[in-house]
Amino acid sequence: MIVVNYLASAALFCLGLYTVLTRRNMIKMVMGLSLMESSTYVLFISMAYRSGSTAPVLVDPPKGRSPEQLAAGNVADPVLQNFCLTAIVIGVAVTAVFLSVVVRIAQHRRTLDADRVRELRG
Amino acid sequence: MSRRAGADHEPHHRVAAGALLTAGMAAVLAVGFLRLQRDHAALPPVARYALEVALPRWKLSEPVNEVVYGTRGFDTFGETFLLLAAVISVIVISRPREPRRGYFGEETAGRREQAEVDPHERRDQEEEQARAAEKEEAGEPDDAVGGAAGLRRPETPDAEPVGSPAPERAHAMSVVIRTAIRTAAPVLAVTGLYLVAWGYSPGGGFPGGAVMLGVALLVYAGFGRKRIAGVIRPGLLEGIEMAGAALIIGAETLGLLLKGSFSANWLPLAPVGTIRSGGVAQLFSVGELIEVGTGLMIAVFAVLGMTHDWTPDEDGDSDGEDNQGPDQSGGSRR
């Protein structure tokens, strides 16, 4: 039942989106963004799954299967797993930049409340 | 959901609009995701190509690694330099006004100058004593001045008496945790290197670099910043990171020069299952380890060390101060 994973991913994404849209605490906004990022990891890994498949490792495939048979199917999709790796790195980079911006905003505006930062006061 | 504004309650903003947009997004996602491929779908052609090409052409038994460093190598290249750009922006954003040697300690470095009206004024014996007494009364650690005031921290957390009645300082973990970290950190470090060194193993530069960051954070958490201050400093890490980036660019460009295509393999390929079996993909992976490991360390420690601009609250209350621009709050030093 891989559909459950898809729906869980959609739910995680919406949870993060709701956090970003409604919270005013900037740390919580960053957390919401992280939640949205992790929903894509769930989605990619779920899309890579095939029923009864093995991990995409070609040396020592499971009994009765050759590497060529693995390529014919019945193996988890390596491309989507790679997308997941890429998404993780980009998520980390984005979170790092946002967090440092939040710390600087907090230092200069003395608040984490986005509403008080919104007006660009001199 | 009630809309309560105030520092004590979680401030919300436009709950109704947010809920509406989220519901719409949920509907779109549900419709889209239900039409996605299920677990009986055939492998897409890209995946089949990666699986077929991994072993004979790239000598990598791990198709994920092959996709990362071979088939989608150009993508990984761009992603690496996106991380580099992010690290550079973190450095720029978190940079203090003065050049610094370490990620921590600016706060104490300028403490004496901040505390005095004229730092160049000569201090006589009497004033020294008065200041030391004042410090002791306030219960401050005397790191910056190095005077005779009490509450000196021991040189290493190991020297701190275990089980003393005072609350344990945040930088000195208990002996159990320190022993565990002593055991785990070398194992973790070797594991991280192993992930990168063997081309046929699952892993590669990104997980290896993340493990290296984990080792640094463990040591920092257990032993304090003094133990890692020799290694984790901006000058060294930034140089190493740039060397990693140069290694990646060089390895990929040599493929262009020698074999006619970017990231083509120009190294002799060893048999599968040996340490050099990956060829240029493995070199790429090593460059990634260096760049991702140091880059994440720079980003994390730069954010952790961003204490420079804090100015103490006046009268403990700055809420509702609307006319306080960055010039007053961030610029002036008291």
Walk me through this protein's architecture.
The complex is a heterodimer of chains A (122) and B (334). With 122 residues, chain A is an all-alpha fold. Chain B has 334 residues and is mainly α. Chain B has a domain of 133 residues. Helix content of chain B is 57%, strand content 0%. The longest helix of chain B is centred in the C-terminal third of the chain and has 26 residues. The N terminus and C terminus of chain B are likely disordered. The interface between A and B is large, with 64 and 80 residues. Chain B: Belongs to the CPA3 antiporters (TC 2.A.63) subunit B family. Chain B: One of its GO terms (cellular component) is plasma membrane.
Helix fraction of chain A by DSSP (H/I, runs of at least 4)? over 70%
The low-pLDDT segments of chain A are none
> What spatial form of chain A do the alpha-carbon principal axes imply?
elongated
Total E-strand runs of chain B: 0
- How far is it from the N-terminal to the C-terminal residue of chain B, by CA? 43 Å
Q: What is the CATH third-level topology name of chain A?
A: Helix Hairpins
Classify the oligomer: heterodimer
Provide the β-strand percentage band of chain A: under 5%
Element pattern of chain B in H and E:
HHHHHHHHHHHHH
Low-confidence stretches of chain B: 1-7, 142-150, 315-334
Gross geometry of chain B: extended
Number of self-contained structural domains of chain A: 1
Radius of gyration of chain A: 20 Å
Give the averaged pLDDT of chain B, no decimals: 76
Number of strands of chain A: 0
Mean of residue pLDDT values of chain A? 85
Question: Biggest interface pair, residues each?
Answer: A-B, 64 and 80 residues
State Rg of chain B: 27 Å
Reading the helices and strands of chain A in chain order gives HHHHH
Membrane topology (chain A): Multi-pass membrane protein
Protein name (chain A): NADH-ubiquinone oxidoreductase chain 4L
Organism (chain A): Catenulispora acidiphila (strain DSM 44928 / JCM 14897 / NBRC 102108 / NRRL B-24433 / ID139908)
Pfam families (chain A): Oxidored_q2
